[in-house]
């Protein structure tokens, strides 16, 4: 039991981030431009493919019934891709998955996909993100951020920001990639925090698929109200953090 506990503790401990050689600012700007253009092209191609393949909502469920397991894998990869892209609204993908597979199965697909996408995003951030960010911003400024230099605050902040609906969770994944937080700990915190929001979205999508329009409307109204309140709370926390940081630097 003692050895197992030590293994779990070691797994969840922060892992030191290796020093990286930074790019020149010009090269960093070019790389960021190429990444942005590539992601935009992939997103447009993805939308065109989905519109061509699924001309109406009934076609989605028909395809799922004919290709249940392949469809499940496809939807999982779509959820993962959405996290990596970061600027595609996750709620829309979750509603679509809920529509196709129902609320509870859809939620499981979204959780697995989000976890997979998060791992990829963190690995990308640590492989390339550190070099890009440190090429554009001084290391002192980056390391002065509370979410990076204070592990206790970082862990609590990460959990609550992912728990609050409406926060830019997928962009935060890249920020976490800049820190020394272990990937297993990150997945543990964020998966637990994502669950309520994902279930709400997939249940709404499932209600739409079952033609329970009133149920779907009620769920989406509640989700919109909670998301709006959550986003305002996020802005308040962010503003408070900036104000506190300025006061500490005086």
Descriptive account of the structure:
The chain is mainly α and 250 residues long. Helix 2 packs antiparallel against helix 6 (103-136) and helix 9 runs parallel beside helix 11 (183-209). The protein has helices at 2-12, 25-53, 57-66, 68-85, 90-101, 103-136, 139-143, 146-149, 151-163, 169-177, 183-209, 213-249. The protein contains 12 helices and no strands. The protein has one domain (24-249). The termini are far apart. 28% of the residues are buried. The longest helix has 37 residues, at 213-249.
Question: Keywords, please?
Answer:
single chain; 250 residues; mainly alpha; globular
Number of helices: 12
Secondary-structure element pattern, one letter each: HHHHHHHHHHHH
Dominant shape:
globular
Main sheet properties: none
Taking pLDDT < 50 over at least 5 consecutive residues as the criterion, the unreliable ranges are none
Distance between the termini: 49 Å
Q: What is the overall pLDDT average?
A: 76
Question: Structural class of the secondary structure composition?
Answer: mainly alpha
Q: Rg to the nearest angstrom? A: 20 Å
Topology of helices and strands:
Elements: H1 2-12, H2 25-53, H3 57-66, H4 68-85, H5 90-101, H6 103-136, H7 139-143, H8 146-149, H9 151-163, H10 169-177, H11 183-209, H12 213-249
Helix pairs in contact: 2-6, 3-4, 4-5, 4-6, 4-10, 5-6, 5-11, 6-10, 6-11, 9-11, 11-12
Can you describe this structure in just a few lines?
The chain contains twelve helices and no strands.
